[in-house]
Specification:
Layout: H1 2-16, H2 18-35, H3 57-66, H4 74-90, H5 95-111, H6 114-137, H7 142-225, H8 231-258, H9 274-279, E1 285-289, H10 297-317, E2 322-329, E3 333-341, H11 354-365, E4 369-375, E5 378-386
Parallel strand pairs: 1-2
Antiparallel strand pairs: 2-3, 3-5, 4-5
Helix pairs in contact: 2-3, 2-5, 3-4, 3-5, 4-5, 5-7, 6-7, 7-8, 10-11
């Protein structure tokens, strides 16, 4: 258990300071290689004969220090490492400095900006071509040019290819991770949308069914209270009306709970918004004949729902139909007639009749009547509601 804890702490320290460990490891490897005498790799010049091999430790240690900033300043570190590499080459060259230069070139490709990496590739190509051409220009044979070009390619091309491979792998991993996050967000949005639609549907059902029943209770109680006085009946009707009003408040509270917090509340349809309702009736050409009456709230909402349901049915069963909405007012009642003619009958679009039943139920709860059926080559819905229902 203790050994596992030490190992875990060591891993955490390494992950927190990877560049520091890389620099320390490279410096130790360079010191070991220098002490083993692995020097004189590039230059065999007379002035290198009397140089102490320990001088190679100077550029190696300085290059290892430069490695500490290779992640933040990759090309600055590479430039400094290139200068130290040339200085080490003047001393005869050492394998330890080759390790430092490899790491700095690899880091520049991995962490540097994309446009600078492309410039670096062009510079490597130029150096390799120059290494091939230089011996030929001084009169040496092609074999020496190929030898120098291969050395330059191995020294520069290997860390470049390695860095590009790791860079592309990381980019592909980042793209895959981004796609996974997008997929998660899409699933979350779809789930939220499904929940919102279900809440909206439940809210509509509550409003259509519960609100209709409770409104009928309150309206009938008001009508009874307006009749001849009878103390017991009036007391009972007062209780019924109070229960109905309380039920309406409860229903509104339930709708608020079912809706999401940021969704706007949707008010029941009203005849005052009939023009907007007509504009939203896609698939039919609707028009209003006569003026829209000003009515009490219960009658207004009931007739507005009749008009809305009639427009929806016309668009569903007879797209392209001409729909006429006509209001007729009398002293004791108000009537709306919605007539649709023409249009293209839709195969298999026969309805269930529930929409007409709901419209008829709304009218009858207010003491009115509703008729729906064929009218010539079209369809007519007529609802008549007494004014006393208010």
């Amino acid at each position: 258990m203790a050994e596992h804890g030490v190992r875990a702490r060591a891993v955490r320290i390494y992950r927190a300071h990877p560049d520091g460990f890389a620099a320390l490891g490279t410096a130790l490897a360079g010191i070991a290689l220098t002490l083993l005498g692995i020097n004189g790799l590039w230059v065999d010049a007379p002035w290198t004969e009397g140089i102490d091999p320990l001088w190679h430790l100077v550029p190696i240690l300085l290059g290892s220090a430069v490695m500490l900033v290779k992640r933040r300043l990759p090309f600055t570190a590479l430039a400094a490492g290139s200068v130290l590499f040339l200085a080490d080459g003047v001393l005869g060259g050492s394998l330890g400095m080759v390790l430092v230069f490899f790491d700095l070139l690899y880091s520049a490709v991995l962490f540097g900006a994309a446009h600078r990496v492309r410039v670096l590739l062009a510079a490597i190509v130029v150096v390799v071509v120059a290494a091939l051409a230089a011996p030929l220009l001084v009169g040496q044979d092609l074999r020496n040019g190929v030898f120098f070009a291969l050395q330059a390619f191995v020294l520069l091309g290997t860390p470049y290819w390695w860095g590009m491979s790791v860079r592309r792998s990381r980019e592909l991993a980042a793209v895959s991770e981004a796609r996974a996050r997008d997929a998660e967000r899409l699933v979350a949005l779809q789930r939220d949308e499904a929940v919102r639609e279900e809440r909206e549907r439940m809210a509509r059902d509550l409003h259509d069914v519960i609100a209709g029943n409770l409104s009928a209770i309150a309206i009938n109680a008001e009508a009874a209270l307006a009749g001849p006085p009878g103390e017991r009946d009036r007391a009972a009707l007062r209780a019924v009306r109070e229960a109905g009003v309380a039920g309406l408040d409860e229903m509104r509270s339930m709708i608020l709970v079912l809706r999401t917090g940021d969704d706007p509340l949707v008010a029941p349809p009203r005849l005052a918004a009939l023009a907007e309702l007509v504009e939203r009736s896609d698939g039919v050409r609707a028009s209003v004949v006569g003026s829209v009456p000003v009515l009490p709230t219960a009658i207004d909402q009931a007739l507005a729902r009749v008009v809305g349901e009639s427009l929806t049915n016309a668009a569903r069963h007879r797209p392209g139909a001409e729909v006429e909405i006509r209001f007729d007012e009398a002293s004791d009642a108000v009537e709306v007639t919605v007539t649709s003619t023409g249009g293209r009958p839709q195969a298999g679009s026969r309805g269930t009749g529930h929409g007409i039943d709901l419209m008829r139920e709304r009218a009858e709860r207010l003491g009115g009547v509703l008729e729906a059926g064929p009218a010539g080559e079209g369809w007519r819905v007529r609802a008549r509601v007494p004014r006393s229902a208010s």
